[in-house]
Amino acid sequence: MAEKRHGAWFGFGFCGFGQALGSGNSHHSVHTPEPLHASDDICQVSAGWSYTALVTRGGRVELSGSVSGAADGCRDVWASEELLVLLRNKGSSSTELQAWVPGSALQGEPVWVRNLVSGAKGQGEDEPSRESRMGTLPLLPCARAYVTPEPPFCQPLAPELRVRQLELGAEHVLLLCATGQVFSWGAGRHGQLGHGTLEAELEPRLLEALQGLRMAKVAAGGWHSVCVSETGDIYIWGWNESGQLALPTRSGTEKKAEREEELNEDGLKEELAVAEVAVADVGAPAHFIAIQPFPALLDLPLGSDAVMASCGSRHTAVVTRTGELYTWGWGKYGQLGHKDSTSLDRPCCVEYFVERQLEVRAVTCGPWNTYVYAMEREKS
Fold this sequence. Notes:
Helix content is about 5%, strand content about 40%. The chain is mainly beta. The protein has two domains: about 40-115 and about 135-155, no CATH class; about 160-255 and about 285-380, Methylamine Dehydrogenase, Chain H (7 Propeller). Strand 18 (about 225-230) and strand 19 (about 235-240) form a beta hairpin. The chain is globular.
């Protein structure tokens, strides 16, 4: 009989509000991955800037950080500074979507409720459920609408889009449809929409640069975007101020990042002056690239194939087919997991998991931190 492998969630990066990041010490950052702790095995993590929501296998959601609280019967969670959204079981054949003010500690009444018809949920042994890996929220199970952090809290989607995945960035949205095509809309001033301009798009617009390529995953960060193709290629675009695109960045970026401690709670304050912007032109050399408005193909070291990506405010994390984790971008709080606070403009393998013979299966980034699910590697 095959030996059962065990998995666990790990966290690293910003924990200035006491977010669940392993030891729970009062320092503001964790520079190397530490195991998370909860009342039961964790199956999902969703991180806002000041707090984190954990979902256990028993369906309990637990909050830590600037807000606290817990609730049972939870199937899925999505955390943001403005809104905490839960999918909770409501009888045997339906699910209730609840939107809470994070500071409510899940007490009293939610600010918005919607009943959804749902099917049975399957889950593999000792690894995150399919729903947690796919990140159902903010996309609703019906795939006809998605959650937004501001009223009316729910936005409809055209049924012809046949949505598989939807991700919210700070000011933009990425949508992956069943055919592997990608759509984007929202603000575009940092090139995060991938249409080659800095203009906003009010409605979902197809990324023509990726037509003919089938994508398997999408990820939206603060102002940058990532797609992973079915063949394991990575396409990345948007803002590159801290090297989050793994493209050449101007010298002194790290010193500039040190000044970013004055950012507001969502990390949304900009210091990008017009004189500092360099928009990448196709075929034109550049000493640095601040904005990449078209999807750019990115090669990982050793020719590794990617299977999953996630984006923080200004950092990027990718899981490879062989279970390695690569991170790059802004690293002030240790969110890259490389035992320091250095920022990087190139993908670098997180050696913690390699050294411990752990196979990374999933990654999800908060704005300034990173959470990883990893399992023991099979004995050869």
